[in-house]
Amino acid sequence: MWVSLVAKIVIIVGMNGVICDLESVNWLRGTSTDLTKALQFLREYDTEASEMCFRVNTAQWQYSTNMTDLLKRKMVEEQTLRAKFDKLTWKRAVVFDWTRISDPVARRQLKMLTTNTRASLSDEKYNEIYHLISEMKDIYATTRTCAYAPGIHDNEVTYCDLGLEDIQTIMAKSKDHKELAHTWREWHDKIGPPLKNKYMRYADLANQAARLNGFLDAGEEMRFMYEDPDFENELAQTFHKLQPLYKELLTYVRRKLIEQYGDRVVRPEGPLPAHILGNLWAQDWTNIADIVLPYPKFADMDVTVEILRQGFTPLRMFQMAEEFFTSMGLKPMPPEFWRHSMIERPNGRKVQCTASAWDFCNNIDFRIKQCTEMNMKNLIMIHHEMAHIEYYLYYSDEPYLFRDGANPGFHEGVANAIVLSVFNLKHLWRVGLFNTNTDNYELNINFLMLMALKKVAYAPFAYLLEQWRYDLFESGVTRMNADWWDLRLRYQGVVPPATRSDAHFDAAAKRHVPADVPYARYYVALLLEFQVFKVACQAAGQTGPLHGCDLYRSREAGRVLMDIMRSGKSKHWRQVIRSMTRGETDRISADAMLEYFDPLLVWLRNQNRDEKVVGWTTFKEDKALFQPLIYGGSGVPTAKLACIFVVVLVFIQFVQ
Ligand code: X8Z
Ligand code: ZN
Fold first, then answer.
1. Which ligand is nearest to the Cα of residue 358, counting in written order?
2. What H or E segment, with its residue span, contains residue 495?
3. Which of 385, 390, 466, 529 is catalytic?
4. Which residues cross the membrane (predicted)?
5. Which residue from 606, 245, 252 is spatially nearest to 456, judged by alpha carbons?
6. The predicted structure's pLDDT at residue 27
7. Ligand nearest to the Cα of 384, by number
């Protein structure tokens, strides 16, 4: 057991606990094993937490759909109340020794309430970390940068009000590498430095809380959410398996980028510069599809024109998505969903347009918020969000704490498995939106390339972000930025377009870092997405290549999904995988994803057959970009030069 690592057993203030000195403890846990009291506490908690969730979500919904200062204040008030409620809950829960509670359901719930929480900190530090995170989120949301203006010098005026959304648009659309490098630098140079000290304090507090909860550091506590000490190895193995496919993709993409930008921007056989991949974080390469698509003549897979021609409305797109789910025997959206969802951008008020699915925790109210635009991307997004609603509906009878995915990757994994069946040539053809023969080889390779630019390109980024955070919690903050780029280069094969130093804090350019949002879930979700899809396809009796499988109208596939969703988080996720694979395995695996992309891998290997290096070779110039003190630009390590200089000085002194 993880907790047995901790030497001292501690007793704390509580309903029937004993008082101890908080400064001298390693780990907080009560002694009570009273099941009746535990069950009564959990019953009360269930009602109160559901009510609290309803209040907070209602306030958040009101603000997101009408962004006024007043509604923002109300939302912050409710969020602060919830933070207080969480702290009180922890105080009540930690009185029990969950490891010795006889009832497995109560034990599981108490474990959830006393781990992965900062509530073990003193009131003062608990408030401090809460406010640090909101300050960091605010800085992230309000940072503005200057536009690229060739010919204009530093002291002249340029437009300096570009926010993250504008920057993302430039990174997606521009093909001017100087503009891309400028935009990339602006964001990274402006966002990191103001967050650095705050983040260091945050990491310190997160570690203190984790140690009070019985963990070595906050990274170990984050891994504990997966309820299996071997899970890291399992993920490392999947990453290892995906690497050959990623390297083939990168090699092919590099060749195309050299054709576009020349070998002064992209070094043949080297890593890729992070600014020319169509995305601020180089995590999704779909925006450079126009440069890399294998068969440009067969480029048209976008059914937007057909959606417009057939006169779709947002409502009809939502009804179409609902019919997708009911065709598999899954639930229709409840009346409250249709009454309260926001499916169009309203006139006359400012709203937050990011698509999202909401559970109001009262078993009645479920909503989607989306400023639907009439295009294929939005049609697919609706299916994704509605899959989250299906998940909410299926586990809605579970206790509050179990109303979640089996592990943090399940919700997103299931929603994306649905998307694999919708953004799918056969499906689009079946629903009358795609009229070309879908058996065409070139079309299928194009389709797989598009998917690979999104999914395969994403794998190393999704994997490394949390590795960086784990390293930071374990080893401290001394090499924060160099460590970030070490991992980016090692796993992703990308380098920054400009020199970086320890004054920078480039990991903070990704919102999940300053906003304290765990990220391993996205890597897990990526694998699960294909795993769930494959199992559902087998149940549906589909026999062709995996990327052509469509779950539409398959009740058998619906049953597979239903079984995954309805247990929520009440069972260990290994049990869920074991039962969805009919006993075959309980492991997360990369095999289904590799099977999906196999035709593309064959194609890529053929394309790359004359390449000297599949993958990338790292030169000292690459590392010099982010470790300038070790590798000065000349290639001779600066530290070595400094050392020789000192020796010479001492020698001169000596001979004088
Ligand atoms: O953060 C998100 C969603 C919220 S669940 C917007 N995603 C990850 C990211 O943006 O990096 C979705 C894809 C991965
Ligand atoms: Zn989602």
1. 2
2. strand 494-495
3. 385
4. 629-652
5. 245
6. 62
7. 2
pLDDT band, very low/low/confident/very high, at 12 (cuts 50, 70, 90): very low
Q: How far apart are CA 23 and CA 383, in angstroms?
A: 51
pLDDT greater than 70 at residue 645 = no
Report CA(333)–ligand 1 centroid distance (Å): 24
Residue 500 lies in a domain: no
The one catalytic residue among 373, 512, 556, 595 = 512
Q: Read off the pLDDT of residues 473-520 as tens digits, 9 standing for 90 and up.
A: 999 888 999 999 999 999 999 999 999 999 999 999 999 999 999 999
- Global pTM value: 0.91
- Residue 88's H or E segment, with its range, is helix 69-93
Cα 73 to middle of ligand 2, angstroms: 27
Across 25-29, 495-499, 612-616, least confident range: 25-29
Least-confidence region, from 25-29, 62-66, 259-263: 25-29
For residue 390, the tally of other CB atoms under 10 A from its CB is 25
Give the Å distance between the CA of 519 and the centre of ligand 1.
9
Give the Å distance between the CA of 383 and the centre of ligand 2: 10
pLDDT at site 157:
62
420 falls in which pLDDT band (50, 70, 90)? very high
Would you call 221 a catalytic residue per the annotation? no
Q: Of the ligands numbered here, which is closest to the C-alpha atom of 392?
A: 2
Residues with Cβ within 8 Å of residue 523, at least 6 apart in sequence = 235, 409, 459, 462, 463, 466
Q: φ and ψ at 342, to 5 degrees?
A: -110, 105
634 assigned to some structural domain: yes
**DSSP, residue by residue, 411-471:** HHHHHHHHHHHHSSHHHHHHTTS--S-TT-HHHHHHHHHHHHHHTTTHHHHHHHHHHHHHH
- Assigned token pair, 498: 């400009």
Residue type, 471: D
CA of 411 to the centre of ligand 2 (A): 7
Binding residue per annotation — 255?
Answer: no
Q: Among this protein's residues, is 512 annotated catalytic?
A: yes
Residue 649 lies in a domain: yes
Domain that holds residue 640: 626-655
What pLDDT score does 477 carry? 82
* CA 252–ligand 2 middle distance (angstroms): 30
Has 572 been labeled as part of a binding site? no
Name the band, by pLDDT with cuts 50, 70 and 90, for residue 120: very high
Q: Is 412 annotated as a binding residue?
A: yes
Please name which of 194, 199, 208 lies closest in space to residue 513, comparing C-alpha atoms.
199
Instruction: For residue 632, tell me if it sits in a domain.
Output: yes
Tally of domains in the chain: 1
pLDDT tens column, 240-250: 999 999 999 99
d(CA 399, CA 112): 12
**Angle at 576 (CA atoms; ends 575, 581), nearest 5 degrees:** 100
